[in-house]
Design brief:
single chain, mainly alpha
Length: 144
């Protein structure tokens, strides 16, 4: 019976690899190379045989950069699913050779919009919507 338990434990560990997160951040200054650094780290990890994906979190309240001034924000990169995103997602696609979609990009505007839409539908049952826990829970759900 002990052997059966050990084998089951090994199988369970082998089938569910824990997720690891690497956060690349450097303030709100654009053009520091955070996106290229993240793409390069992703490339190195993928070259080592690991499964890699990237989620870009942008602090601006715009829903997407499509209507933002390109002199302030930079160029817009359009994904295969039609999402208008930051140019960094183009770097991620090329460096780690995966197709990005709208789930790989989140702005504060998208997060707030999602929470407010849920509030209007009544999902929070009349509770007072607050940054903690509602906004933070939405950010965490996007990370998962």
């Amino acid at each position: 019976m002990d052997d059966l338990k050990k084998n089951f434990r090994k199988l369970k560990l082998a089938t569910k690899t824990p997720v690891k997160y690497i956060f690349v951040f450097g303030g709100v200054i654009s053009g520091l190379g955070k996106g290229i650094a993240a793409a390069s780290i992703g490339y190195l990890l993928k070259s080592a045989g690991l499964r890699v994906t990237i989620l870009k979190l942008d602090p601006y309240l715009n829903v997407d950069p499509g209507t933002m001034n390109p002199y302030q924000h930079g160029e817009v990169f359009v994904l295969d699913d039609g999402s208008e995103t930051d140019l960094d997602l183009g770097h991620y696609e090329r460096f780690i050779d995966i197709d990005m979609s709208k789930i790989n990009n989140a702005t504060s505007g998208q997060v707030y919009s999602t929470v407010l839409d849920r509030e209007r539908r009544g999902d929070y049952l009349g509770a007072t919507i607050q940054v903690i826990p509602h906004i933070t829970d939405e950010i965490i759900s996007r990370l998962n």
